[in-house]
Amino acid sequence: MTTYDAGEFTLEKVREYVWEMPQEGDMRVPARVLASEELLDEISDDLSLQQLKNTTHLPGIQQYALAMPDAHQGYGFPVGGVAGIDAETGVISPGAVGYDINCGVRMLKTNLTYSDIQGREEQLVDALFEAIPSGLGGGGVVQTDVDTLEEVLTRGVEWALDEGYAVEDDLAHCEDEGVRPGADPDAVSKKAKDRGRQQLGSLGSGNHFLEVQRVTDVYREDVAESFGLSEDQIVVLIHCGSRGLGHQVCTDYLRDIEQAHQGLLEQLPDKELAAAPAGSHLAEAYYGAMNAAINFAWVNRQLIMHRTREVFADVFDRDWRDMEMELLYDVAHNIAKKETHTIEGQDRELFVHRKGATRAFPAGHPEIPAAYRDVGQPVIIPGSMGAGSYVLRGGEHSMAETFGSTAHGAGRLMSRTEAKNTYWGEDVQDDLRDQEQIYVKAESGATVAEEAPGVYKDVDEVVRISDELGIGDRVARTFPVCNIKG
């Protein structure tokens, strides 16, 4: 097959797993989808391709707009989308980052094995659910006043270190060492701060979770050893973001940009792509506010990890250090960052928008933590609560192909409404426990139904494509033991 017919769109096969929507009309660049035909069938079943085409209209976009193998319809910009936009002549788009700024994942290692957990799954899941705030609304591991929140927004995980919620190694194993430069708390509205102030250290709702997992497969022994992973090992995966604060930052700036830059908005096919020209007041303000929200999210996940260490220490009656509960890595997958990339032989600074896409820098890149620089950046890709998750490393072709990016998860197949009409939460919990020995606890059955395994694409196929293309190489696979959700 040399072309793929997706109704009004015809994609041309560039090579295996790379499909291109040719540049035409007002498109500034072509669009590319990285997928197998099986995944392409699913990606073309919603508005993802139309949204990807719309993205090519953004001023300053370079090379091509990209959809990762897990792509699905989002707000204006497809989830699983990547766009590199010139940081001097282009734009920055809040919709191309998303409402949950720095939604991301971190993996916590242990020296426990699956046999250490068996028989204690219910005790562990109950203790985690009791200790870690989840669900809609307020409640967090810590309650913050205005001054404390300002510090969190400015200093990120450095604040958590000073307050005893982190150790030095935690910063060394986090993207940007847990502190995003250029954060401007003054650019974050009072309403956003009020929403976030009581939510610091909480999972939230929707697809956010904390999951205890066991390593089932190792694909690259040398890299796994560098990451500190081995078969049968117990790890913990935390997936959440900037809660109400990040949502409000996106809401505020979408509204302000729509009002201030109507002329630009009229040039775009979808107002949800509302963007501020690089160098404008709103572009600078949004970038500062977004970086502050990024810092908030890193502290949020750090506090959840701190509480997880305490729970394990209590359940297993051992100090968390004795269980070697060390951070493997924390990486964002809703973010826009200034990065330097080679475009037509010249280095250029870009706003790299990754929405539902993970940074995946290859070995040798200077922004990778020193511990991993020789092997490549860890990439963490969660699956559904009934399927495996993956640890990858940045692939050698990622910089040339995807602005140093790969997928961020399995990607949804069903809307939340459709999922609730298809599944009954209690039945999903019972089936996972009885058939897979996976213990799930959530605020409501509706949450479980919305996140049922059948709601998601095949994460194995998503990761296979990443590996085949050399943008993110498989290192290890994990499988759920117990899971808490909002």
From TrEMBL:
Cofactor: Mn(2+)
Reaction equations catalysed: a 3'-end 3'-phospho-ribonucleotide-RNA + a 5'-end dephospho-ribonucleoside-RNA + GTP = a ribonucleotidyl-ribonucleotide-RNA + GMP + diphosphate; a 3'-end 2',3'-cyclophospho-ribonucleotide-RNA + a 5'-end dephospho-ribonucleoside-RNA + GTP + H2O = a ribonucleotidyl-ribonucleotide-RNA + GMP + diphosphate + H(+)
One example GO MF annotation: GTP binding
Residues at which Mn(2+) 1 binds: D100, H208
Comp. bias intervals (Basic and acidic residues): 187-197
Residues reported to bind GMP: 207-211, 333-334, 382-385, 389, 408-411, 485
Note on cofactor: Binds 2 manganese ions per subunit.
Active site: H408 (gmp-histidine intermediate)
InterPro entries named among the record's database cross-references: RtcB, RtcB-like_sf
Function recorded in the entry: Essential for tRNA splicing and maturation. Acts by directly joining spliced tRNA halves to mature-sized tRNAs. Joins RNA with 2',3'-cyclic-phosphate or 3'-phosphate ends to RNA with 5'-hydroxy ends.
Self-association state and partner proteins as the record states: Monomer.
PANTHER family per UniProt: RNA-SPLICING LIGASE RTCB HOMOLOG
Family membership: Belongs to the RtcB family.
Name of the molecule in the record: tRNA-splicing ligase RtcB
Name of the gene this protein is made from: rtcB
